[in-house]
Specification:
Blueprint (H helix, E strand, L loop, with lengths): L1 E6 L5 H14 L4 E6 L8 H10 L2 E7 L7 H16 L12 E7 L11 H5 L5 E8 L5 E2 L2 E2 L5 H23 L4 E2 L5 H20 L2 E3 L9 H5 L5 E4 L4 E4 L8 H5 L5 E3 L2 E2 L23
Parallel strand pairs: 1-2, 1-3, 3-4, 4-5, 5-8
Antiparallel strand pairs: 6-7, 9-12, 10-11, 12-13
Helix pairs in contact: 1-5
């Protein structure tokens, strides 16, 4: 069985999850191919059409932000279905591949794994699996201080995630649907409230760079998935565009904690940063 997964990971949680899924899937005889949507120039129209024609399952993986999907992944899926709409005649199969969605979260994701459902179902793709996995937080800022879990709690969550992945793969093997929280009215109401309130948080949260702490290593510029950070060499200042997807990557990877939130320098231990979720992890893994 061929499974194609398109993924986006802000600070590594989703990247770890997809790689664990891939490793466990080998034991089921499945071949999993993963592409980061940050490599947008390499994910051509032909490659998208090939993934539809050749895959037994189409997968999408992303973190949840306030019960919502990242704008970066949303825009990619909009592009994906638009390409499908424009090239229906080139699809060389009678039945479209079913869709799988994997999401990562801190504690609660509501129905975040079901966000793409209507876009695929409308076009005839069976939306069979949408599952959430609790790992850790990367959002420890003044207006929402949720420090990452310590190692013991994180390892506990990782073990739970592995068990859940095996359960999911058994469901896939048995061709049984699993759309988590689809019929849980309370979860869906809370998720809706979060999706209304979360954009307000992002509207009042503005990033900057503290020039006294910054060493101009350019990691924030080099690793920004949406290229929302620009360094002006003439003024030697950093500018953040509206293209920011609030993945918190720059904030978490800065070696000098120079990324500010609403002009405030946020230092540990009060504002902790997420640690690499696995040995040898590099932020370049998310887009190389």
């Amino acid at each position: 069985m061929q499974i194609k997964i398109f993924t986006f990971s802000g600070t590594g949680n989703t990247w770890w999850l997809v790689n664990e899924f891939k490793n466990i899937a080998i034991n089921y005889g499945y071949d999993v191919d993963v592409s980061s949507i940050e490599q947008s120039s390499e994910i051509t129209e032909n490659k998208i059409l090939k993934s539809i024609n050749d895959s037994d399952i189409l997968g999408f993986a992303y973190p949840i932000y306030g019960s919502d999907w990242p704008r970066f992944m949303r825009d990619f899926i909009f592009r994906f279905v638009e390409i499908f709409d424009q090239n229906r005649e080139s699809i060389q199969r009678e039945e479209l591949p079913p869709v799988l969605v994997l999401t990562t979260m801190m504690m609660f994701s509501g129905d975040g794994a079901l966000m793409p459902k209507k876009y695929f179902k409308k076009r005839g793709f069976p939306f069979k699996w949408g599952v959430n996995f609790a790992l850790s937080s990367n959002l420890s800022v003044p207006m929402f201080r949720a420090n990452p879990y310590e190692e013991e709690k994180l390892n506990e969550n990782k073990q739970k995630a592995k068990k859940k992945l095996k359960k999911l793969l058994n469901r896939i093997k048995e061709n049984k649907d699993w759309r988590e929280h689809q019929w849980n009215l309370i979860f869906r109401i809370v998720a809706l409230l979060q999706r209304v309130s979360e954009p307000l948080l992002f509207r009042i949260m503005h990033f900057g760079v503290d020039s006294k702490r910054c060493i101009q290593c350019m990691q924030c510029v080099d690793h920004c998935p949406t290229k929302a950070i620009h360094f002006d060499e003439e003024t030697e200042t950093f500018k953040f565009s509206d293209n920011c997807t609030f993945c918190m990557r720059c904030y978490n990877l800065c070696p000098k904690y120079a990324i500010t939130v609403n002009e405030k320098v946020c230092l540990p231990p009060k504002y902790e940063r997420i640690e690499p979720i696995m040995d040898g992890f590099k932020f370049s893994d998310l887009h190389d």
